[in-house]
Give the backbone structure.
Amino acid sequence: MERDFYRVAQELTQSRAAFVVVTIVDTVGSVPHGRGGRMIVQGGSIVYGTVGGGKVEQAALREAIAMLDGTIKERNHIVNWQLDRDIGMTCGGSVRVYFELCDLSHWHIVIFGAGHCASALTKLLVELDCQLTIVDTRAEWLDKIPARAGVDKMLVAQYGDYVERLGEKCYVLLMTMGHSTDSPVLVKILQRFPGNLPYLGVIGSKAKAVRLKADLLAAGVHPSIAEQFYCPIGLPLGGNSPAEIAVSVAAQLLQVRDSSAKA
């Protein structure tokens, strides 16, 4: 049975379908299903398992559908139901149910560059609930990124070629070979998205940030928009190794994502 659960979850993940895992984590008294009962909801129906059937299951299904359609904004939460009072059942027990939304498409991170720091960051991000796209002009560097569900590797002639494919909800990182390749992409992005991407960052120092802002102003980008990117990227922790840079950047991405979700 456990094998079937993970098989269904993996298949849905690989197809990039959004789904909700519903799990009974605690019970008191007379209830339709004990602890550990779980089901997977995809679209508007149950595609695996059960949490007891009847009114409990229908209430859980409604809760999961509300997460899938965005009515409930939380990506995971717990509900406590007194079965007679909250569900309308005759038995007087209670259940504690955990809901977890799995949706790769909600958090799309695009990294321009597949070098050492980007590769280290990718190793962390593939463990998170996100869709990841790596863009590079060098096939040999893209080949070093392991093939994983939820990861797209895009070979382009010029980095700027991919800008037209960005969506307004993308989290974007420029980690290419240096200023000469980062700057034209940054200009193109801020001309297309004037400061309204949820996250836009460029790897580098404070001195590089000054040069980038000068490039943006020279390209006609409004001064207020020319400030709308992170550089340096990452939270102020760790050292300068690719692995520690990756940790600080991943932490900042999570911080920005979670702060925007609460706004």
User: Anything to note?
Assistant: The radius of gyration is 22 Å.
